[in-house]
Amino acid sequence: MVGHDFREKLNTVAVATACKVLGQRLSRCGRFLATRTCAMSPLDRILDRWRPRPRQRYALALAGGGVIGGMWEVGALAALEEQLNGSGRGFDIYVGCSAGAVVASLLANGIRASELYRILDQDLDDPLNFRRGAVYAPDAFRGAFRQFGRLVWAVGKKAMVGIRDSVPDMLARAERDMPAGFFSLAALERYIAAGYAARGLSNAFPALDRTLMIPAIDLNTAERVVFGQGELRDVPISHAVAASSAIPGFFEPYTIAGRDYVDGGVGFSGHADLAAEAGAETVVVINPLVPTLADDSCSMRGRGMYTIMEQASRIYSQNLLQLGLAVLGMKFPRTQFFLLHRLALRHGYTSTKEWLAQEGAPLVRRLCVTPIAAAA
Prior knowledge:
Cytosolic phospholipase A2 catalytic domain, 3 domains
């Protein structure tokens, strides 16, 4: 009984002490609020209520996907523009990786997605009508053949020296003689820079009215860098796009100021975190790199090694993006993330129109300035 009474008394003292501390804190909080309220005149209180709050910021993050992926993104954004019917808010922040960097750089320059869609769909003679020759120019193919010759020579030489070695051993011995990539991105950089100039667009990050961020990976430090920010703000946009598009093995690493860069999609997907950290409350992420679905009657195994590797890359990219967005949702609880990803230009348009009419309705309501009914 004595122990029980002692515990009861101890609990009573603890509760009383906690209530006293809580009361003191509430009292201080009340005095602060009262002082602040009294310090404000009735007119100040009215003005404070109607004082404009900071405008919400909207961001667009575009992943890679090659020429076809870029066309899909254009189609998806054209559908979004049409759904908003001219009453939508523009994006304040653009993040683009690899092929998405090309599209993002044009949008940040004020080119509308509907205009890009028309240029591509009608195959117009326009500097913005991207063609494969921009990357795979004749000189690029000659360079690729030279690099392929280096590869064959490197493996063949080591095979002659150590004919009893296994294939992995021969490849390991030949590694230093292998090329850094088959194609150079110099042709792409020249094409983009010429296109900007022909259309009167800016090739400088500081000259843009909107925020543009183009991520890439520093090959030697394995760190992500963001062109358009900090020390990399003065790098020409065309060079940043080329650096972010350097797919390892296929393209040579792109060199800027003595640093070698590779595709921004290496180890990352979407880069939506850059938009959230820049203060965006709404982030639209478009990812054209999704796995291709095939039934048992047409297994992907029979399509060859390249198809299998491509499928594995798409699975990795999609899972990485979905996991990343789940983490970002917890890290930035006030930021709303919208992910668009479906199976070229017209398909991106039609599938996005269907998505906007159903699951994407909350996004339309957020972006629409006037009521939805008026925009329909």
